[in-house]
UniProtKB/TrEMBL annotation:
Its cofactor is Mg(2+). Keywords: DNA damage, DNA repair, DNA replication, Hydrolase, Magnesium, Metal-binding, Mutator protein. One of its GO terms (biological process) is DNA repair. GO terms for molecular function: 8-oxo-7,8-dihydrodeoxyguanosine triphosphate pyrophosphatase activity; 8-oxo-7,8-dihydroguanosine triphosphate pyrophosphatase activity; 8-oxo-dGDP phosphatase activity; 8-oxo-GDP phosphatase activity; metal ion binding. The lineage of its organism: Bacteria, Bacillati, Actinomycetota, Actinomycetes, Micromonosporales. Residues 1-125 form the Nudix hydrolase domain. This is 8-oxo-dGTP diphosphatase. Its EC number is 3.6.1.55. Pfam families: NUDIX.
Length: 128
């Protein structure tokens, strides 16, 4: 199981550019990662956001549907999230971070697994 966080602030969502591996470097994703054995999806997201972005987050509801990953062995589940305590994301594991509004979602090249989530995210940003 792989989880991702759609961190939303001020009507924008945080997009993160992969720095590795080379075949996906420069493509964009939502922060997150694998759920470890014995860890809940929510706990995994809180840990991954701290590791990748040095932020504390509150996790909300699901965004979009389960997406089968390209290699077929995992499923991606994305949750809405918000920053806590005025934390500002830092690109600890990514080459670049961008805050995108609903109209800017198509200005970056999303990883295939993250792309279906973008459509589901658009109404959440428009209403923010």
């Amino acid at each position: 199981m792989v989880v991702g966080a759609a961190i939303i602030a001020g009507g924008r969502v945080l997009a993160c550019a992969r720095s590795a591996p080379p075949e996906v470097a420069g493509r964009w994703e939502f922060p997150g990662g694998k759920v470890e054995p014995g860890e809940s999806e929510i706990a995994a997201l809180i840990r991954e956001c701290a590791e990748e972005l040095a932020v504390r987050v509150e996790i909300g509801g699901r965004v979009g549907r389960d997406v089968r990953m390209a290699h077929g062995r995992s499923v991606l589940k994305v949750y809405a999230a918000r920053l806590l305590h005025g934390d500002q994301p830092k690109p600890l594991e990514h080459s670049e971070l961008r805050w995108l509004s609903a109209t800017e979602l198509d200005t970056v090249t999303w990883l295939p697994a993250d792309a279906p989530i973008v459509a589901a995210l658009r109404p959440l940003l428009s209403n923010a």
